[in-house]
Amino acid sequence: MKDVLDELAAARRSMGATTLPAGEAYTVELRRRYDAPVEDVWNAVTDPQRLARWLKPVTGDLRLGGSFELEGGEHGEILRCEPPGLLRVSWLFGPDADEWPGTSEVEVRLSPGPAGDTEFELVHAAAVGEPMFPTYGPGAGGVGWDLHLLALARFLADGPVLDDEEFRTSPEGREFVRRSAVAWGEAHLVAGGDPQHAASAVEATTAFYAGEASA
């Protein structure tokens, strides 16, 4: 389990604030280093065949101004694409998501590291008032991104593809989810979150991602 928890510890997590087309928004932010050249990491986050190995299968018009859809239903438009350093997309999910455009965006920023590695940053912005935050806090998206970035780390290291569902329900995966939820709770507190809300969100997020609660 040590290597899995080491990957969790490799990321720095924070919350912030920004503005989206729909208005005021909060952000969940992850920063970490990958031991791979920036061109390789860029390819892994933009090539459909490679995306399917660590994120989800994707279809659509994958170019600036085009739209995409992941197998799980997440979809949006490609807003900025500046290889090999910046990718920004709108990020909508759920049956009513298209009625609320401009409420969620994901941006990935890459920069070359000093040893031929890559500094990776992911920022997911969601409109204040979105329905998941009152129950799950920043872990609503943060734990999911932690799981995906673990899968990306294994993929870049030529390791086995991580089966998300199987991993999350394993003892190792449950511990990963628990610690990820706690880490996002700590980020919530640092950002000025209410301690009672942060504690209840950690509990709800842990249960949700470990398969112990319904959506």
TrEMBL record:
- The organism's place on the tree of life at top rank: Bacteria
Q: Which Gene3D superfamilies match?
A: 3.30.530.20
A Pfam family (short name) is AHSA1
InterPro entries noted in UniProt: ASHA1/2-like_C (IPR013538), START-like_dom_sf (IPR023393)
- Which residue ranges does the record assign to the Activator of Hsp90 ATPase homologue 1/2-like C-terminal domain? 35-154
Family recorded in the similarity comment: Belongs to the AHA1 family.
Q: What is this protein called?
A: SRPBCC family protein
